[in-house]
Design goal:
- The protein folds into 2 domains: 178 residues, Jelly Rolls; 114 residues, Homeodomain-like (Arc Repressor Mutant, subunit A, Orthogonal Bundle), CATH 1.10.10.
- Helix content is 51%, strand content 14%.
- The strands form 4 sheets. A 5-stranded antiparallel beta sheet has the order 2-11-5-8-12, with helices on both faces.
- Strand 6 and strand 7 form a beta hairpin.
- Helix 4 packs antiparallel against helix 5 and helix 11 crosses helix 12.
- The chain is elongated, with a radius of gyration of 24 Å.
- It starts with a strand and ends with a helix.
Length: 299
């Protein structure tokens, strides 16, 4: 399998026969160079791709990506993405922005880029954009391209980073809109989340594997951990980890209320030692399992 190593933005643009005026930023309008050879890329840079075509099928993980015209994809260093080169050219439209992490050094975005969790989303969780949203992102792409093409001065990188941060903030707003618009779909995922969680404990997997992780749940639901975490946060107000922990606490309460001892409850929920369970329970409930048991008996 042929993979293009994109250690710097110019690695990708050079593959497409382009040259970049700025060493840390590349802006590509596919309509100017289409058709192009496709690439499967190993990214060492950040990338934002605004696709304006549906001529290329993309697959990821558990199924085919429901690609529609006007979709935004985001990638981060360490990720693999794209489509393997078949030796033939394909018509593409849209834009690509690639920028090296070094561009962010010394800026607030260097520390803040982690809050844009959509960089960790899978391809099947991409942003489906409205016409107005596409116009906003396209306008910012043009602004970055224009600024990157100017002679370098002391303010150039700061201005480019400002445009990038503004684009990321808009993308976050657009994702918030998409989460709100997909309430039925998100509700289905939450329902399946509960089913997987119940099935995990029903099969006694906690006895050998402990409390299920977000990665485990995400794999079973065919979504990325970041997407699942954001979905649960927006739907319930709790983090995915906290949501699982609250479910475990409720199971513990049910077991204690039905007459199980603290030790029996701890081991049945996958804790190695009763004291570990007691610390966990007190952290979540504010009281120890023993105190909870005594309250139940009084009532």
């Amino acid at each position: 399998m042929k993979v293009l190593k994109v250690s710097k933005p110019s690695d990708y643009s050079s593959y497409l026969g382009l040259s970049d005026p700025h060493p840390l930023v590349s802006v590509i309008e596919y309509d100017r160079i289409s058709p192009v050879y496709l690439t499967l890329n190993d990214y060492g840079v950040y990338g934002i791709f605004l696709r304006g075509d549906d001529s290329v099928d993309l697959t990821y993980g558990c199924g085919r990506y429901d690609y529609k015209e006007g979709t935004l994809l985001a990638v981060a260093p360490g990720q693999l993405g794209g489509t393997e080169d078949t030796g033939e050219k394909f018509p593409l439209s849209g834009w690509a922005l690639l920028f090296h992490p070094d561009l962010l050094q010394g800026t607030p975005l260097e520390k803040g880029i982690g809050r844009y969790t959509f960089f960790e989303y899978s391809i099947n969780e991409a942003l489906h954009m409205t016409e107005e949203e596409k116009e906003i992102v396209t306008g910012l792409m043009r602004s970055i391209e224009l600024e990157a093409g100017k002679p370098h001065d002391m303010q150039q990188d700061r201005i480019i980073v400002g445009y990038i941060e503004l684009m990321l903030n808009f993308c976050q707003r657009f994702y918030d809109r998409q989460f709100a618009a997909r309430k039925v779909e998100n509700s289905d995922i939450l329902g399946r989340f509960q089913e997987v969680l119940n099935g995990y404990f029903a099969a006694d997997k906690q006895l050998s594997e402990g409390i299920p992780t977000i990665q485990y749940m995400a794999d079973r639901l065919c979504v990325s951990p970041s997407y699942l975490g954001d979905l649960i946060k927006r739907s319930t107000g709790s983090t995915a980890s906290k949501y699982i922990q609250r479910q475990v606490v409720q199971m513990a309460k049910n077991l204690i209320s039905s007459g199980h001892s603290i030790s029996e409850t701890a081991y049945s929920l996958g804790f190695d030692y009763p004291q570990h369970f007691s610390r966990f329970f007190k952290r979540e409930e504010g009281i120890t399992p023993k105190d909870y048991m005594l309250r139940r008996r009084k009532n």
